[in-house]
Specification:
The chain has 379 residues and is of the alpha+beta class. It contains 3 helices and 21 strands.
């Protein structure tokens, strides 16, 4: 190409560039999604996980050893009343003892009757010997009766008195034997009554370990576990840092796997924290509802505070080392503004300071926008 055409082409390019510089405009502002800060209700809450347990668990077992279980009348999940029979033990051996006791009682009664008869005879003989002694003593004073006769009457009187004492002792012994037989009978009757295993209180049977034919023992596992009154609670561990926000009576929403929510209230705030885990055990009383059973996993949300506050979506907040901030849109420009963050829940953030109701912020704050950038707000 000759120098002339080259110079002509270069001149054309320069002219075009000059035209762009003279007549070009700034690119249109970036469109960003925005949202206005609103005043809404904010609920502070504490999340806890735990297990359903009995508020009070009653261990029901045999009060007598060595008897076989012959009948079981209640099972897991049954609601029972106070005094209701849950199981029966074999009482045949005790019934034999009761029959033997009846025979012993008959012998004791016969011995008492015999002793009383002997007392009557001994009293009569004692009175007769005493009268004979008095007559002998009177005759001896007048010299009619000899000393030998007097001594015989004295010996006879002493013998009669001894026989009376022995008869009375025999009666006391027979009565003591009767009392012993009566005590044995009461013991046998008590043991017989304990062959019926009863519920000490009304409640819900959460576990049954008794089996037909098994030998019941007082030292083994309880045959039944009863949830007293059917009251089931959530026992959950909570960090010590959240204990200050809890108080008795706070409402709790409890979620069960595979079941609907259950309402509850904080019943017991832990008074002791485990030194190793720094966790305390919280108790939440639950309202009666289907699906409550001891041992199930549950998750609770404890409401600790409820108030009106300024909120924005959590996506509108930038969290950096120096704190939280939002990107406010005003007069078509983005302004970075530091804010004081409060509670966050359900995708919303509470703004305690730095933002007013109605101010517009970028819905999804990010590093792609800088302070002062021109934007077109899209609500």
């Amino acid at each position: 190409m000759s120098p002339l055409p080259r110079r002509a082409a270069l001149a054309t390019v320069v002219t075009l560039l000059a035209g762009v510089g003279a007549h070009g405009t700034e690119p249109p502002p970036m469109a960003v999604a925005t949202i206005a800060a609103i005043r809404a209700e904010v609920v502070d809450s504490v999340l806890v996980d735990g297990t359903l347990v009995a508020r009070e668990e009653i261990m029901v077992g045999p009060q007598i050893d060595g008897l076989r279980i012959i009948e079981i009348l209640a099972d897991e999940g049954d609601r029972v009343a106070a005094g209701q029979v849950l199981a029966r033990l074999d009482r045949s051996a005790l019934e034999v003892q009761l029959a033997q006791n009846d025979a012993g009682m008959a012998r004791a009664q016969a011995a008492i009757a015999q002793a009383r008869s002997q007392i009557v005879q001994a009293e009569a003989a004692n009175e007769e010997a005493a009268a004979a002694l008095e007559r002998a003593q009177a005759l001896a004073r007048t010299g009619i009766a000899s000393q030998q006769t007097l001594e015989q009457r004295i010996a006879a009187a002493r013998g009669a008195a001894a026989r009376l004492t022995a008869a009375r002792d025999a009666l006391a012994l027979a009565e003591a034997e009767r009392r012993q037989v009566e005590a044995q009978r009461r013991d046998t009757e008590l043991r017989l009554s304990r062959t019926q295993i009863q519920a000490p209180q009304a409640g819900l049977i959460s576990r049954r370990t008794g089996r037909l034919g098994a030998i019941a023992g007082m030292g083994g596992d309880a045959l039944f576990r009863i949830v007293a009154g059917g009251e089931i609670e959530l026992e959950a561990e909570i960090p010590e840092s959240r204990l200050a926000a809890l108080s008795i009576g706070q409402p709790v929403r409890v979620e069960l796997t595979g079941a609907g929510p259950v309402a509850g209230k904080v019943r017991l705030v832990p008074a002791e924290v485990d030194r190793a885990t720094r966790l305390g055990r919280l108790r939440v009383a639950l309202e009666a509802a289907p699906g409550l059973s001891v041992g199930r996993f549950a998750r609770g949300t404890i409401e600790t505070d409820r108030r009106m506050a300024i909120v924005v979506p959590l996506s509108a907040v930038r969290l950096e080392r120096d704190g939280a901030s939002v990107q406010v849109v005003a007069d078509g420009r983005v302004r970075q503004r530091a804010v004081t963050l409060g509670s966050t829940m359900a995708g919303r953030a509470e703004i305690r300071d730095g933002l007013a109701v109605g101010e517009v912020v970028v819905l999804r704050a990010g590093a792609f926008l800088r302070d002062g950038d021109a934007v077109r707000a899209v609500p």
